[in-house]
Amino acid sequence: MVDKSKRRSAPTSLSLARLDKLVHGRVRLGILSALAANETLRFNDLKKLLKATDGNLSVHARKLEEAGYIRCRKFFDDRTPATEYRITSSGREAFRSYLDQMESLIRSHRRQRP
Amino acid sequence: MDMEHDRAAIAAGSEESAAVREAIGSLQYIRETIERTERFSAIPGWGGVAMGIIAIVAAVIAGNTSTPAAWLSAWLLAAGLAVLVGVVTMILKARRTGTPMLIGAGRKFAMGLLPTLFVASVLTLVLFRADLYHLLPGLWLLMFGLATVTAGMWSVPVVPIMGICYMVLGMAAFVVPASWGDAMMAIGFGGLNILFGVVIGRWYGG
């Protein structure tokens, strides 16, 4: 028999449905993590860091940019076009709240284990 | 009714376990991504072993030279060759492990290393021109140790430990007779590089 107290609390806090889906995607999570630890990163650096393809990275970076989570700056570095990304305050807030959710998910699971 | 309830609870439980597994996986991924930019892990272990062998060969050659200029040339040639081996193996390891060289920790590592090595080069010139070349082994070991400790703060923990060993050996080189200079360099740039090279190669990705 399953303990009724566990049955009641299980699905409420331990759900991925309430997560910010924009942050939860693997490449987007990687972009936000890297930018949370570095002031700015260039497109090519992020590509190497996340082992992503050009197309994949630019699609996900654009989604984060449209959500206002990161800011993009295009410029010329010695006549070569370069793109630089920076996390915004709302992006940092979304990342922090995602981390909090993940932590509370794990913590509440540990509390419920016999 | 009770059975249905139990089945639903089991299903909820397995969904919950999957969610927790996913959460742990996400946190792990975040940690690894941040570590790749905050910790420079492309220090070449096996490249370090090769650099150590170069230093031991250089110590033998330098020990058999007859003039201070020839002695200095032997060591400078060895240093140039060792730097070349170090840089090439570092680039290869960085490519293999996906470690960025010029962002985050890679840049900090370089900035920790270069100023001290620049000062060591200037002091080498000054001491050699003042005929104090017998002080060079101690200076080189001490300064290389200092550079490794400073830069190593942005790398795996074994790197600053290696730097401390170099510094201790450098201080010892000032105390022992000057004729032991080449032997101290062989122990430091040879022995320590080989020892820590094997540790890094074996436990820190090659």
Topology:
The complex is a heterodimer of chains A (114) and B (206).
Chain A: H1 4-13, H2 21-24, H3 26-37, E1 41-42, H4 43-50, H5 54-66, E2 70-77, E3 80-87, H6 89-112
Antiparallel strand pairs in A: 1-3, 2-3
Chain B: H1 2-38, H2 45-63, H3 68-97, H4 104-129, H5 136-152, H6 158-175, H7 181-203
Helix pairs in contact in B: 2-3, 2-7, 4-5, 5-6, 5-7, 6-7
Strand content of chain A: 15-25%
Rg estimate of chain A, integer Å: 18 Å
Could you estimate the helical fraction of the residues of chain A in percent? 55-70%
How helical, in percent, are the residues of chain B?
over 70%
Structural class of chain A: alpha+beta
Largest sheet properties of chain B: none
Widest sheet, order of strands of chain A: 1-3-2
Q: Would you tell me the overall average pLDDT of chain B?
A: 88
Strand content of chain B: under 5%
Number of distinct beta strands of chain B: 0
Number of helices of chain A: 6
| pLDDT < 50 runs, ≥5 residues of chain A | 1-14
Mean pLDDT of chain A: 82
Shape of chain A: elongated
How would you sum up this structure, described in words?
The complex is a heterodimer of chains A (114) and B (206). Chain A has 114 residues and is of the alpha+beta class. Helices cover 62% and strands 16% of the residues of chain A. Chain A is elongated, with a radius of gyration of 18 Å. Chain A has helices at residues 4-13, 21-24, 26-37, 43-50, 54-66, 89-112; strands spanning 41-42, 70-77, 80-87. Residues 1-14 of chain A have low confidence and may be disordered. In chain A, strand 2 and strand 3 (80-87) form a beta hairpin. Chain A has a 3-stranded antiparallel β-sheet. Chain B has 206 residues and is mainly alpha-helical. Chain B contains 7 helices and no strands. Chain B has helices at 2-38, 45-63, 68-97, 104-129, 136-152, 158-175, 181-203. The radius of gyration of chain B is 24 Å and the shape is elongated. The mean pLDDT of chain B is 88.
